[in-house]
Amino acid sequence: MKKFYALMLPLLGLMIACEDDEAPVAMDPDPTPIEYTSGSADFSNYVAVGNSLTAGFSDNALFESGQAASFPNMLATQFALAGGGNFNIPFMADDLGGATLGGNPILGNRLILLFTPDGPAPTEKSGTGTTEISTKLSGSFNNMGVPGSKSYELLAPGYGSVTGVALGTANPYFARFSSAEDATVIGDAAAQAATFFSVWTGANDILLYATNGGSGTDQTGNFDPTSYERNDITDPNVFANALNGILTTMTAGGADGVIANIPDVRDLPYFTTVPHNPVPLDEATAALLNGAYAAYNGGLLLAQSFNLITADEVAKRTISFAAGDTNAVVLIDEDLTDLTMTVDPALINMRQATAEDLLILPSSSFIGTLANEVDPTSINGVAIPLADNWVLTPEEQAAVETALAAYNATIAALATQYDLGLVDMNAKLTELRETGFPQSDGSVVTNVFATGGGFSLDGVHPAPRGYAIVANAFLEVINAKFGSDLPPVEPLNFTGLYID
Questions:
Q1: Distance CA 286, CA 454 (A)
Q2: Strands 358-359 and 99-101
Q3: Per-residue DSSP letter, 131
Q4: In its keyword annotation, does this UniProt entry include Signal (predicted)?
Q5: What is the mean pLDDT of residues 426-446?
């Protein structure tokens, strides 16, 4: 049931025809070099603030090559054409991405495509990472992207504490390059006196809830982020206050800047790759399952007769299989009426998935496995319903969308208040999903998992070619806002997938 496709990289040959080998070759004079200008902006000291999307996170890890292919590093390369200075990056120690604390592994390696009898599948690269979190990097860094950070955590003292990492209260990536145990990300960023900055934060304030199938809590109305769990949705007012604090700090010295809004999770292959109906069944197995679920379906009708649920909910919850390759998985839905106390403990909140449900990418390797190795009928997603963490239901999606709309409204308002360029990454990633971006070689960069070139193997973070598209979105806004004429990045100069 798991089908991944490796990215095919065709080799292009260049054929040059010549009618007359004896004809003299005319030499063009050296072209006049193009002079690029910065407009009203000053790119001499660029600082990027954000989370994993700013750091260059890719294939579920942070590693050297990915950091070099981060969109801020691409921007800095273009800025150098018009007065931009050095761009220092807190590089990991290798290209594996794994890390240790006191010699004990705490971060996994990046993903690669491993070719198996069932086809190519994302698998963690083997080897032991040489990045030791407690080994502090010296100096200041222009790329202040901290993977895993939420908006309010960028302002939190001690977020880069090595001791805090051991206790689970601090961030291991920031711990490597924070200026002190009690430092804040935004404080270290501001200390560099940036002349130009970018901010892209807030995705994790909803993304962690979404990628974990809505298993967290929507904290809207709770203004105390210290009481939040990791996978919770941040209250929009908490987000607004945090972002305002970030921008107040970054603009205090008169720096110009640009800010990006937050993409819709439904544009990420993490939520669009696994179909809701991936279960193949023959007639005998379908009949066996229908017999097993007959009592459950009958219990729903009994509950309807007591006016405990409506006919619509009965239809929604009725489970039925048929011979074929497109049977929907069975899942737990906490938003259904609880019948376990009023009718029968066996009438748990389960139903079959519909096209409106978003199965998360890791579910592809879980559906069809056995919950009990000695019981061949205990098939996850079929006889055993998928737990809440495997599926983002429509109700959970609504919570994400409500928070997203509030966050992006805040970002737009603060961009106006602080006179910043506003990059609509929400629209850009929707365009990537709906139409893709045609390239000069005839290819099209899309959001299709593993083969589209836009996203890495974790299904959430862009591949280097996708980061180039992100960089170009920033450059378009920067040129329009500040009157610069910087050239775009060439996406084909960057890989669409790390082969190894």
A1: 38
A2: unpaired
A3: E
A4: yes
A5: 97
What is the band of 26 on the pLDDT scale with cuts at 50, 70, 90?
low
Task: Give 46-272+395-493's CATH code, choosing from 3.40.50.1110, 1.25.40.20, 3.40.50.300, 3.20.20.370.
Answer: 3.40.50.1110
User: Is residue 425's pLDDT more than 80?
Assistant: yes
Could you give the CA distance from residue 337 to residue 298 in angstroms, rounded to a whole number?
A: 16
CA atoms within 13 A on the CB side of 396: 34
Cα distance between residue 177 and residue 379, in whole Å: 46
Other Cβ atoms closer than 10 A to 173: 26
- Please choose, from the candidates 189, 210, 192, 191, the residue with its C-alpha nearest in 3D space to the C-alpha of residue 200: 189
pLDDT surpasses 60 at 24: no
Compute the Cα dihedral for 124, 130, 134, 135 and give only its sign.
Answer: negative
CA-to-CA separations, 87 to 74, 144, 278, 335, in angstroms, rounded:
10, 11, 46, 49
Which residues 6+ apart lie within 8 Å of 480 measured at CB?
421
Q: Are strands 350-352 and 437-438 parallel, antiparallel or unpaired?
A: unpaired
95 confidence band (pLDDT: 50, 70, 90): very high
Run of H or E residues at 438: strand 437-438
Identify the sign of the CA torsion 271, 274, 275, 279. negative
CA-based torsion, 225, 230, 236, 240: positive or negative: positive
Across 32-41, 269-278, 398-407, 430-439, least confident range? 32-41
- Tell me 198's DSSP state: E
Residues facing residue 200 across a β-bridge: 50
| DSSP notation for 52-116 | HHHHT-BTTB--HHHHHT-HHHHHHHHHGGGT---------SSSS--EEETTEEEEPPPEEEEEE
Look at the block and give the residue holding tokens 């010699």: 103
H/E stretch holding 399 reads helix 394-417
Residues belonging to the chain: 500
**pLDDT of the residue at 30:** 64
> 158 and 9 in contact (C-beta within 8 Å)?
no
The residue ranges of every structural domain in the chain are 46-272+395-493, 279-352+358-392
Buried b (16+ CB within 10 A) or exposed e, 397-408: bebbeebbebbb
What whole-number distance in Å separates Cα of residue 420 and Cα of residue 410?
A: 13
pLDDT score of 226: 96
CA distance 23 to 290: 80
Give yes or no for a contact between 190 and 246, defined as CB atoms under 8 angstroms apart. Answer: no
User: In which band, very low, low, confident or very high, does the pLDDT at 5 lie, cut at 50, 70 and 90?
Assistant: very low
Token code pair at residue 163 = 């001791």
Residue 363 pLDDT exceeds 80: yes
Residue (of 115, 425, 146, 138) closest to 263 by Cα position: 425
What does the pLDDT read at residue 117? 74
